[in-house]
Amino acid sequence: MRLDKYLKVSRLIKRRTVAKEIADQGRISINGKVGKSSSDISTNDILEIRFGNKTLTVKVLKIVETTKKEASADMYEVISEKYENDFRTPIDETPKV
Fold first, then answer.
1. What is the pLDDT of residues 37-64, one digit of tens each?
2. What per-residue string of b and e applies to 12-21 under the rule 16 or more CB within 10 Å gives b?
């Protein structure tokens, strides 16, 4: 299955056109190599997707042509989710005396 279609069907990325743009910008790697939107993926491939500040690494568990929203999470396993700058935690601001 094409990379952009897999990302859309698995709901890792909401729209196929967005998945195509991200892949063609070189922000997705398949098993350590830069992937294009037309790259074929198979089970047990490791995908690394860079969304600006966030890097998501997933393992492809199964490939299906269509799936329901509830079953889409069964298509992959999240290996890691890293943030370059974690803006979710507050910065320790000590008052100056």
1. 999 999 999 999 998 888 999 999 999 9
2. bbeebeebbe
